[in-house]
Predict the structure.
Amino acid sequence: MKRIVTMQDISCVGKCSLSVAIPIISAMGVECSVLPTAVLSTHTAFENFSICDLTDNLSPVTHVWKKEKIDFDMIYTAYLASVRQVDSAIELCRDFGGEGRTIFVDPVMGDFGRLYTGFEASYPGHMMELCKKADIISPNLTEAFCLLGEEYCENIGLSEALKMAKRLSDKGIKSVVITGVSPEKGKLGIVKYDREEDRYFSYFTDKVEASFPLHGSGDVFASAAVGAMASGFEVDAALRLAADFTAFSIEKSVKNEKRRWYGVDFETALPKLWELKMNLKG
Ligand code: PXL
């Protein structure tokens, strides 16, 4: 069985970060080790939240892993609460990355053109340094604009989105996948540029209209993509699977009249994840 490690927070309530990554990656038949960075009462979209910062606990944990000669097939980082945690993630990549190890960075920072509560304007510059260590990054549109230091624009066409992925990659990132791109009405998906192969890729599903925010949907996408890549699927196929699973999870949320406002109903979509994986195996 493949083993990955994911470094991000636990939001005790609010369907995101480790509460999303562990079930999705495990459901794909991949061992999901964790490096928890903080324990929050709720994610930061709630009006009130508490945070217990675990930065000082990170190196004692990784120190033991090194002594025990533990290794991982993939490293997946997501929400990191501070610049110090970004630095710790860079150390994790240095110590546990390398030949045959894939580093997947989801530079979680914001949405709808704004940084999440708690992040300062200088944060994206630090996150960029982590992105440069990655084999693949998965910013949403807001995060891609932040990393580029460009003004946010919600409506961009397909060729603009592809060019944007290339611009970001040109800054020293191997492969850039931008999520949440809607180049035409009724479609939503991803665009990708791969620097080593000088190759573009895009994939869109029918957009499920939701009249509420889809908190955690980026975590659902990234976790499914990591699970599929660790399962041995080639990257584009893994990304297609992740996009299909995310769209299906959103559809489940929209159909559920009793849904929670703070996250998508990926739980009831989990059987579909296995089905998508089996279909890909052929
Ligand atoms: O879903 C991303 C995420 C993860 N963790 C925390 C968050 C958010 C988004 O708001 O606040 C704590």
Q: What stands out?
A: Residues 9, 11, 16-17, 40, 43-45, 79, 108, 116, 216, 218-219 surround PXL (CB under 6 Å). The radius of gyration is 17 Å.
